[in-house]
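Researcher: Let's do a round of design. I'm pasting the structure tokens now; please hold your answer until I've finished.
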């Protein structure tokens, strides 16, 4: 492709110093060399290292995704788990340090949500005022002029994130109530854009890039499901549901996969999303778990 543009998630010369970001790599026990990887994950989780294991998996995923060369029309790649990793670390350590029965799975960062805060569906006011997480955020390697990252100074609101977190704020009252049994995670932690800043979802990518992306993200998702010992995975939107189904079926785990409609205002017939999502949770038999 002689006329195609190539975009990497970061320059080869840019390396992540996760020690400076206080993300300690978890060294799985080597006392028994015959232990399987699954047993190692399970044993570490039982020792209370859940949040650190998740951060380790995500760090490795960022490195793998950073090797992908994206072609035109993808011009910009934002990796908030690099430039906003300090905020993401706060989110994981504060809210995912215990086993979770329910994993809500999103697709990838939105321009005014996780791309700004490092938190899945991380609409500014919800992260700052309800989750009580705030701090400095860096910049992507290559920034789109109309999609600048200003962190918690951003004056735009991501409607999807506002709708999702507001629903659980209304149902649960406190974030602690929600996170007693549930956790929200994004399948793919990078945002992709055209030259004009138009968003490109993973579902729209073709060719070898998506095969590599799926392979890396599938592996990370499976690891996280095992670490938190999830019993139910709820895809937020059809793409997340399909990736969860693929991962669960391939691993033959006895885990139920469900789907909530995506809270995006661009989705078809998506008015009254909160009411529709509440009805779905009730149909799943899960609503009472969140009502305070």
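Researcher: That's everything. Go ahead.
Model: Designed sequence:
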């Amino acid at each position: 492709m002689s006329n195609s543009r190539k975009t990497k998630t970061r320059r080869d010369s840019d390396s992540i110093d996760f020690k400076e970001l206080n993300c300690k790599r978890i060294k799985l026990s080597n006392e028994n060399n015959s232990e399987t990887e699954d047993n190692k994950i399970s044993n570490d989780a039982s020792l209370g290292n859940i949040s650190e294991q998740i951060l380790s998996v995500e760090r490795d995923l960022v490195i793998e995704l950073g090797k992908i060369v994206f072609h035109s029309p993808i011009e910009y790649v934002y990796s908030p788990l690099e430039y906003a990793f300090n905020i993401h670390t706060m989110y994981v350590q504060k809210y995912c340090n215990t086993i979770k029965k329910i994993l809500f799975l999103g697709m990838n960062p939105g321009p005014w949500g996780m791309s700004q805060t490092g938190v899945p569906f991380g609409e500014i006011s919800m992260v700052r005022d309800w989750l009580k997480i705030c701090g400095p955020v860096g910049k992507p390697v290559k920034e789109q002029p109309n999609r600048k990252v200003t962190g918690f100074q951003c004056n735009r609101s991501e409607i999807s994130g506002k709708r999702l977190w507001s629903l659980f704020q209304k149902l649960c009252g406190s974030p602690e109530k929600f996170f007693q049994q549930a956790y929200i995670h994004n399948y793919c932690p990078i945002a992709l854009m055209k030259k004009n800043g138009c968003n490109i979802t993973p579902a729209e990518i073709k060719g070898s890039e998506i095969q590599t992306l799926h392979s890396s993200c599938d592996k990370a998702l499976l690891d996280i499901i095992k670490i938190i010992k999830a019993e139910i995975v709820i895809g937020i939107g059809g793409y997340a549901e399909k990736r969860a189904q693929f991962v669960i079926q391939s691993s033959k785990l006895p885990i139920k996969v469900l789907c909530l409609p995506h809270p995006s205002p661009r989705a078809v017939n998506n008015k009254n999303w909160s009411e529709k999502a509440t009805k779905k949770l009730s149909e799943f038999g899960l609503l009472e778990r969140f009502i305070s």
